[in-house]
Design goal:
Number of domains: 3
Shape: elongated
Helix content: 40-55%
Number of strands: 14
CATH architecture of the largest domain: 2-Layer Sandwich
Cofactor: Mg(2+)
Subunit structure: Homodimer.
Distance between the termini: 76 Å
InterPro entries: ATPase_NBD, Exopolyphosphatase, GppA/Ppx_hydrolase, Ppx_GppA_C, Ppx_GppA_N, PyroPPase_GppA_Ppx
EC number: 3.6.1.11
Radius of gyration: 26 Å
CATH superfamily of the largest domain: Exopolyphosphatase. Domain 2
Subcellular location: Cell membrane
CATH topology of the largest domain: Nucleotidyltransferase, domain 5
Strand content: 15-25%
Length: 507
């Protein structure tokens, strides 16, 4: 019998909001391993709802929301830290994504992370690496509805990762209009895929790999057709792809496609998927490819549970970036230490766990001077640009936006109307971080190792009080002047910074 006092195993879940399908996988932590206990998949065809202006139509939005509502039923009782939802190409592209995200808030109580293409590639690699027994260097190809990810790595470490804007849904719309199949259409799609890969092909071939692995729906569908044909090993080769192309071209319309092993819901985008994979095979001179069940959602699961991480990838990313841009690490550490000390003293927004934002403050402090590598004038703006647009493994787009916002508002005037629109967080969540960062930067303006005066911070919404020793201004006249200037910046933004005692007061 099971001991009733034994705690139930922790259950975690990951949702992949793809361009063609939404996937959810639920797993149980058992000892040092993950045990998948359920998988759910819904064909949503989100990418087909993008119009020429890159707006999602209402029908596609509703299909996506209906699916999330269904997934939410399975996740009742799950704590926020046990669920990750990642959105990929279509929501990256959609100009009206805020509408989808706002309506989703009322259906599923977990934040939706929109992840960059390179981050999608990294997580796909992680998912395959954890579920594939093969060791050695691997090339992983994942053809989705809107993008294709190509990654080379060894063990659990991706070494080369790109995401290309080519997917079975987008290519079907572009090259197989009105479901028409022809040799001309197929060749055009295949050539377009080769052109997308042209700029990175030599880099991948030079890096090399021992095993080529395909993941996700397109490559799985190709494998199932090959198995139905009699290729029981399910290995995809250039010769078998050529046979498959000829089989497809025997039909004039995708609706008429009739191939053993091909499901009805895959038919509309199958020709486009085969054309993309054929282009990848030709560009990279791939000899053969096997299939893996692991993909983005498994990558999310394995990264969620700390026992499966070698270390926090985001910390490694921030430290590598600091080194790359020759940051003054001593100054960055001073600002980080001060910021953490201040943030620990204040009460943040009650609906948001402090642990969610404190790491972003620490990484922002570490990287706040990254823009000095461009020039000193306006370096806070340069820093913001780099943090918003650089490839930062481990960070989703929202997290990069938060980092960019923190360093953008670390100094000078507070033009808060320039703050970007956020989806997971609200502006009021970021204001305490910005105030903390500004105080930490101002207090360390002398860039010396001399310890700061002992300080206390009390926060009451927009009014903060910074308390320092009674005689601090005698020995810190320059700091006093900097803090008075900081008071002025706060006042113009509608905030209030009290200095206790005030440098204006007589001795």
């Amino acid at each position: 019998m099971t001991d009733i006092n034994t705690p139930s195993p922790r259950e975690i879940a990951a949702i992949d909001i793809g361009s063609n399908s939404f996937h959810m996988v639920v797993a149980r932590i058992v000892g040092q391993s993950l045990q998948i206990i359920s998988r759910h998949k819904q064909r949503v065809h989100l990418a087909s709802g993008l119009d020429e202006h890159q707006n999602l139509n209402q029908a596609a939005i509703q299909r996506g929301l209906n699916c999330l509502a269904m997934f939410a039923e399975r996740l009742q009782g799950f704590e926020p830290e046990n669920v990750r939802i990642a959105a990929t190409y279509t929501l990256r592209q959609a100009r009206n994504v805020h509408i989808f995200l706002k309506r989703a808030e009322g259906l599923i109580p977990y934040p939706i992370e929109i992840i960059p293409g390179t981050e999608e590639a990294r997580l796909i690699y992680l998912g395959v690496a954890h579920t594939q027994p093969d060791s050695g260097k691997k090339l992983i190809v994942d053809i989705g509805g809107g993008s294709t990810e190509l990654v080379i790595g060894d063990d659990f470490n991706p070494q080369l990762a790109y995401s290309k804007h080519m997917g079975c849904v987008s290519y079907n719309q572009e090259h197989f209009k009105n479901a028409k199949i022809s040799k001309k259409n197929f060749n055009a799609a295949q050539l377009a895929a080769q052109q997308k890969i042209e700029s990175i092909a030599s880099k991948y071939q030079q890096c090399g790999w021992e095993t080529a692995i395909g993941s996700s729906g397109t490559i799985k569908a190709i494998r199932e057709v090959l198995i139905a044909k009699g290729h029981s090993d399910g290995v995809i080769t250039a010769k078998r792809l050529q046979w498959l192309e000829e089989e497809i071209l025997a039909f004039k319309n995708s609706e008429e496609l009739s191939l053993d092993g091909l499901s009805d819901d895959r038919k509309p985008v199958f020709a486009a998927g085969v054309a993309i994979l054929s282009g990848v095979f030709k560009s990279l001179a791939i000899k053969e490819m096997i299939f893996s069940d692991g993909a983005l959602r498994e990558g999310l699961l394995y990264e969620m549970e700390e026992r499966f991480r070698h270390s926090d990838i985001r910390t490694r990313t921030a430290e590598a970036m600091a080194q790359q841009y020759h940051i003054d690490t001593a100054q960055a550490e001073r600002v980080r230490t001060t910021a953490e000390a201040i943030y620990a003293q204040i009460e943040t927004h009650p609906s948001l766990a402090k642990s969610e934002l404190q790491p972003l403050l620490s990484w922002g402090a570490l990287l706040h001077e990254v823009g000095l590598s461009i020039s000193y004038p306006g370096f806070h703006r340069h820093s913001a640009y780099l943090l918003r647009h650089c490839t930062m493994p481990g960070f989703n787009l929202e997290q990069q936006t938060v980092l960019a916002t923190l360093v953008r508002f670390q100094r000078k005037s507070l033009k808060l109307e320039e703050m970007p629109v956020l989806s997971i967080y609200k502006r009021k969540h970021l204001y305490p971080l910005i105030r903390t960062m500004r105080l930490a930067v101002a207090l360390n303006g002398q860039r010396t190792d001399t310890p700061l005066p002992k300080l206390k911070v009390k926060a009451n919404k927009e009014e903060w009080t910074l308390t320092l020793p009674s005689n601090w201004q005698h020995d810190n006249k320059l700091l006093a002047a900097d803090l008075i200037k900081e008071q002025e910046y706060w006042h113009k933004a509608g905030w209030q910074l009290n200095l206790d005692p005030s440098p204006h007061e007589p001795d």
